[in-house]
Amino acid sequence: MSTQYSVKQWNFMHKKVGLIFIASMMLTACATSPTGRSQFIFLPDTQINQMGLQSFDTLKKQKPINNNPQYNQTAQCIAQAVTGELGVNWEVVVFEDASLNAFALPGNKIGVHSAMMKLVDNQDQLAAVMGHEVGHVLARHSNERASQEMAVQQGLSMISQTELGQSPLTQGLLGLGAQYGVIMPYSRIHESEADIIGVDLMAKAGFDPQQSVILWQKMSQASQGNQPIEFMSTHPAHATRIEQLNQHMPKAMEFYKKAQAAGKSPKCL
User: What is the average per-residue pLDDT within 238-250?
Assistant: First the structure.
């Protein structure tokens, strides 16, 4: 009898500590993205940056690096132009990879796959790619995602301690609910936000933002209809991205015209 009471008491204390933990996170994790969106972030940026640096070093050791001088010179030139006003230098590496991808990591690192270099028609389309990836870093999406997943795990752990949470069906439904109701929609929000930040970055650097729309049209054609439906995807549908970019284009064109008037005219390709 005394053992049963102590177990119940422990469970109560566990839930209480969990609630206090989540409440403290909610109170201290309020942040605002570059687009003005409210964010849930509580992990130190220094920790996230260190993870990014370690990941990039690992990638350079594990993935073949493309040595095409034109690819590397073009990528370096565009990255310098896009990030020129951010006040820090970004390392850029072109990886030999047949998948259409690029990425940026906390710690000011950019990776571009050789297939992406072959897909684009001009420097402006590649600037759209790089601007988008840098946008993820500027908006601290890695930190937000890590903070969010940690909070979700803590919440699921608390529910699992209840009688209802012991049911395998409940646990499965909770996992699916967290995946499709919280984590994936947030990822699509991140992608859309990075599109807007990226198109503004490229426009301010003197690249034609209208080429971002053409880039995603090319990406849509390259996917050949293999993209999963939007509800089950971490990325918005290509048509959704194009529509959102077109809606934002008047603002991006203002930045582009100001950049041109200031004499910004990159010649990277």
Answer: 94
